Each structure stands twice: as C-alpha cells, then as structure tokens.
Amino acid sequence: METQTARTDIAARAIEIIDQLKSAEGPLLPILHGLQEEFGYVPQETLPLVANALNISRAEVHGVFTFYHDYRAHPAGRHVLKICRAEACQSMGGDRLANRAVELLGINWHETSADGAVTLEPIYCLGLCACAPAAMLDGEVIGRLDEEQLEEIATEVRL
C-alpha cells in the first residue's frame, strides 16, 4: 500500500511540474530537468504523463530522455563523481584515472554503489582543459586531478 501511495504522490507532483512548464517554448527538456530536480531522477512512470501533456509519443520522450547523459532513471548516490572523458583530459592521463576510479569505487559508469554512497558518471568536458584531467564531485569542479586526490575522494565518499 505504501508503494502505491508513493507512486500516486510522484504522479501528482509530476503533473504539477509538467503543468507549470508545458507552456514554455520547447518544454520537453525543461520538464525533464524539473522532474529530475524534484525527485533526483526522472521516474519512469512520469514519461507517459509528459508525452500525454505535450501530445507527443512516449517514444519521443524516451528518445530524448535516453539521449542526454544527465538524466537519471534511478536515484543517484549521496555523492556523484563525474570524471571528464573528453580528449584533453584523456591526453593528460584521464583514462588511467577513470579506470582507477572504477577500481577504487567497485562500480562501473552510470552505477551507484550498493550502499548508495556514490554514483560514478562520465562527463564530456567540464571546460577545464587547461587544468586536465578534471572531475566534478557533488557539483564542485576539481582540476589537475591526480591518483592521490582520487584515492582521497574514494575514501571520502564512502564515509
């Protein structure tokens, strides 16, 4: 029963967000952003509500949702570590650091640790090319990332 109540609450709040944003120009992206901001992810049950409100197909909504890497289908961990995978960071050792992050955290890209502590995501340019390799932890950018810093971050996010 509690699960059904939670789903009803999600749907009700989603409809409010959709109604607030559906008259904006090009409303699909703002609506998806609004849903993710509200819930921390875009609940799958809200996608048909979006399609219906915008009079577009569910496939169109799903296509846009899955095209952009920033939208999540599941809640993120308490911490989100994004490691730049763009060329400048790769040329400065980013691949090695990215592989080390996977190893240290014990999760793959777009995964959240079983304890809900951390989500690991690739990002394709933070605009810190001169300070490569770069990462972002919980919205805070980190330039000139090295293995020692990465190990500290891995320990910190597990606390």
TrEMBL record:
Cofactor(s) this protein cannot do without: [2Fe-2S] cluster
Record-given protein name: Formate dehydrogenase subunit gamma
Keywords associated with the record: 2Fe-2S, Iron, Iron-sulfur, Metal-binding
Family under the similarity heading: Belongs to the complex I 24 kDa subunit family.
Lineage of the species this protein comes from: Bacteria, Pseudomonadati, Pseudomonadota, Alphaproteobacteria, Hyphomicrobiales
Keyword Iron-sulfur: yes
Keyword Iron: yes
Transmembrane regions: none
